[in-house]
Structure formats: C-alpha cells, structure tokens
Specification:
Rossmann fold; 7-stranded mixed beta sheet; 35% helix; binds guanosine-5'-diphosphate; 210 residues; 6 helices; alpha/beta
C-alpha cells in the first residue's frame, strides 16, 4: 500500500452517496468501515457543512421541524472504508418530550454500541459557543468514551478577534472533558473557511483507524 494521503482532498473529490437512514440500531449498516459522525444543535449548520465538505448541495438535508425524523443518515463513497454519519439535531426548544426521549435513546445506543465509530464532530455555532445542552452531549460522549472534536460553524458571522477568543475559551472548556480532542476547527460553509482543515482531519482519522 502507498502512504496514506492525509490532505483530505482526495477523499472529497470523489462522489459521495446517501446510503440509508437508520431509525434504530438494528437498521445500521454492518460494522465494515470506520465511522465519523456529525452532531449538533438543530440549525447549527450541520447540513450546510456536510454539503460543503462533500461538494454536493442537497445531499444532507436540514430537518429543522420539531419532531421530525430522528435518524442516523449514512453517506459513503466507493472503495473507501469510511462512513460519514449525520446524527439527528438536538436541543430544539419545542420538541415534544417523547421525541427527546427517542433521540436520547437512539443516540446513546449508537454512541455506546458502535465499535467502528472513530470520532464525533460536535458542531457549535460560533455566535453561541458551548451551551448547556452541548455540555450535556459532551458528558454523554465522555461517558461513552467516544472521541469527539469541536467544530465551530458559521465563523463568518463573528469578527476575527471574537473567533480567536471563542476558539481559546472553547479549548479551555474541553480540557475538563476526558474524551474531547483538544484542537478546535473553525469553519464557514458559506465562505469555505476551515473546510480543507476539516477534510484533512477526517482523512487523518481514516488513516489512523484503517
Ligand atoms: P442544520 O439544521 O444544522 O442542518 O443547519 P443548516 O445547514 O440547515 O443551516 C441552518 C441555517 O444556518 C441556514 O439558514 C443556513 O443558511 C445557515 N448557515 C449554515 N452554515 C452557515 C455558514 O457557514 N455561514 C452563515 N452565515 N450561515 C450559515
């Protein structure tokens, strides 16, 4: 085998496809590939980021409606042992209680029971920073011992010095979380900022785990 290319561009020049939506663990694909999952509050910019990453508008669809499908959406590209997983958004203020419970059960089962899950990319809106609901998810990830990394979204919405302060304060908060990856990536799907860095991070995870 040749040396793995961890710039990430090779991985995202390829066409990516939607594989399936899994509403429960029994519908997940076989554990035959490394998985990198995207999590974040509803409206954090998760669909926009996945579409920017994969260069395919419309592949990941936004689900802002409270109570809409709570599913894990799987994406793959041919001949590469990697799944990208779009996790259902959380923290929708008006979500009915049974939907919140369904979300928690699905996500917790997934985090605890998926041995090939290499990292969760935890998306945080640059305008808001870490909210209590994000802290709850981080505690869940710590408890499940799943490695996770904070990715700031919509970086174009705040000033450069505010972004630097946010990166520093977020990195400081992460120090008290056992499973958190120390490095924070700042992105803007709109401007393309940080997308190459995120691609490289995913390629590195793949190279390390496969
Ligand atoms: P999701 O619910 O997490 O999938 O979020 P979406 O990707 O649907 O984005 C929510 C809203 O934020 C939409 O109105 C997007 O246009 C906007 N948005 C997403 N990413 C960015 C970004 O990088 N910059 C700006 N300015 N707006 C963004």
């Amino acid at each position: 085998m040749t040396e793995p290319d961890t710039s990430g561009e090779w991985l995202f020049e390829r066409p990516w496809h939607f594989l399936k939506s899994a509403p429960a663990l029994e519908f997940l694909p076989p554990v035959d590939r490394v998985e990198v999952a995207f999590a974040g509050r509803s409206n954090v910019g998760k669909s926009s980021l996945i579409n920017a990453l994969l260069r395919q508008n419309g592949l990941a669809r936004t689900s802002n409606t409270p109570g809409r499908t709570q599913e894990l959406n799987y994406f793959l590209t041919d001949d590469v042992p990697l799944y990208l997983v779009d996790m259902p958004g959380y923290g929708f203020a008006k979500a009915p209680k049974d939907k919140v419970e369904a979300w928690t059960e699905l996500v917790f089962d997934y985090l605890r029971g998926r041995p090939t899950l290499a990292r969760v990319l935890l998306l945080i809106d640059s305008r808001h920073g870490l909210k209590p609901v994000d802290q709850t998810i981080m505690e869940m990830l710590d408890a499940a011992a799943v490695s996770y990394q904070v990715v700031l979204t919509k970086a174009d919405k705040i000033k450069a010095h505010e972004l630097n302060t946010l990166i520093e304060s977020t990195a400081r908060s992460l120090k008290s979380h056992a499973a958190a990856f120390p490095e924070v990536i700042a992105t803007s799907s709109e401007k393309g900022t940080g997308i190459a860095e995120l691609r490289a991070a995913i390629a590195t995870i793949l190279a390390e785990r496969s």
